[in-house]
Amino acid sequence: MNTLFDKTVINRIKLSNRVVRSATWMGLADEDGQVTQKLIKTMTDLANGGVGLIISGHMNITSEGKASLLQTGIYEDKHIPGLKEMTNAVHEHNGKIIAQLAHGGTFAKDELINETPLAVSIFDGLSEFPRKELNTFEISRLIEAFANASERAKSAGFDGIQLHSAHGYLLSQFLSPYYNRRTDKYGGNIQNRTRIITEIQSAIRKKVGNDYPILIKMNCHDFSEEGLTLKDSIQAAKTLSKVGFDAIELSGGLLSSSKFSPCRTKINATEKEAYFKEEALLFKKEINIPLILVGGIRSFETAEKLINDNTADYISMCRPFIREPNIINNWKNGNLAKSECSSENLCFRPGHSGKGVYCMLKNKQKNKQKNKQKNTKNI
Ligand SMILES: Cc1cc2nc3c(=O)[nH]c(=O)nc-3n(C[C@H](O)[C@H](O)[C@H](O)COP(=O)(O)O)c2cc1C
Questions:
Q1: pLDDT(379) > 70
Q2: 10 Å Cβ neighbour count for 349?
Q3: What does the alpha-carbon distance between residue 241 and residue 223 come to, in Å, rounded to a whole number?
Q4: Longest dimension (CA), the chain
């Protein structure tokens, strides 16, 4: 029976347990997309905290693909030295780190880029701002940009890469019949809508070789009208597992949806944890590569059960690590307390205001405690 603390291997990376830190934009790069010391410290805290595999925040592979404030970039060679410093620091603390490669597509932020954002298709209601529909030449340029970014990731010392094809970003827009209304070979049935991803995988493989892990994060379901359905997503996953991806991380929902967003709120009972577990079971039956499950996992019991009963090969968490980077070592050392993350998504707020992502509730509690101590001293 598999357990959470098994040692495993994905392609050639040796992992010390089955826990992944899901990609997390920390808003801690500088305006040029360069790594900062604060970002490196976040990564070394995670490595010290015992997580088996860290996935970086989404990194834009072209300058016009930038979707978040103070996002880390990987679109030019100038980013390599900073990224290398970060991967070296993680490795010195016995961690493993994978680069998440991303493009915002229509969700690239107008105010952060100097060009018109690219869209898979243009239609009424897509955006209140101008968008440019990708032509086939631009699609081939994008495929090349993903491949070049993967080469940069490898030379910067990352242990592998993950394509961000979830939550409504560019590759997820290709998979979605709502965003993808193309009539060429990249649109139409799910085989066509998956095509750009298989072409990117093949271009990346040529650059990085067979023994370099290529992962993908995708939605099991967009949970939105006319979006990617479960049936089509399973079909896409089957194709992706056959063309040489090394693992699939399963998520769901779009950033624009509230109730069914990838970061659901009110995870206050065991039944609400692992909110894509039913879908994971269906994917597991159809794919022959490791499945990493993300979304609302908060307790050791849930994590261990998902692994014991083979619902997933790895469990992945994001928000719990923002609050407690050390949670895996705690679990390993016998402190099996559930994550203190309240799942209210307040951690986004400081990120959006340029201060970097952190747990606002933990900071509030710390300040309260400090004030209490001050007041006691004054008595
Ligand atoms: C602050 C923040 C930043 C995130 N950044 C990314 C990202 O860069 N790439 C990505 O694929 N998902 C990102 N996510 C989504 C998470 O990886 C994860 O899928 C989601 O939070 C559900 O997992 P959780 O319940 O363990 O938090 C982010 C989530 C949060 C809260």
A1: no
A2: 12
A3: 23
A4: 76
d(CA 239, CA 117): 29
Q: For residue 162, which phi and psi values (nearest 5 degrees)? A: -130, 130
CA trace torsion 232, 235, 236, 238 (10° rounding): 160
343, 296 contact by CB (below 8 A):
yes
pTM over 0.85: yes
Q: Which of 25, 59, 70, 161 to mutate to test the pocket of ligand 1 (most atoms within 8 A of CB)?
A: 25
Those residues with Cβ within 8 angstroms of residue 323's Cβ, 6 or more apart along the chain or in another chain: 339, 340, 341, 347, 359, 361, 362
Are the CB atoms for 87 and 158 separated by under 8 Å? Answer: yes
Closest CA to 256 of 102, 75, 61, 125: 125
Annotated catalytic, 169? yes
The per-residue pLDDT for range 231-276, each reduced to its tens digit, is 999 999 999 999 999 999 999 999 888 789 999 999 999 999 999 9
Q: Whole-angstrom distance between the N-terminal and C-terminal Cα of the chain?
A: 57
Distance CA 170, CA 106 (A): 7
Q: What is the mean pLDDT of the chain?
A: 96
Token pair for 204: 């990346």
Supply the pLDDT for residue 377.
65
Q: How far apart are CA 134 and CA 311, in angstroms?
A: 38
Angstrom distance (rounded) from CA 244 to CA 213: 9
User: CB of 164 closer than 6 A to ligand 1?
Assistant: yes
Q: Which residue, 330, 328, 234, 350, is CA-closest to 287? A: 234
Number of the ligand 1 atom closest to the C-alpha atom of 347: 1
> Quick one: which of 259, 275, 106, 116 has its CA closest to 181?
106
Over 282-332, what HEC string results?
HHHHHCCCCEEEECCCCCHHHHHHHHHCCCCCEEEECHHHHHCCCHHHHHH
Catalytic-labelled residue, pool 75, 169, 178, 186: 169
Q: Is the CB of 27 under 6 A from ligand 1?
A: no
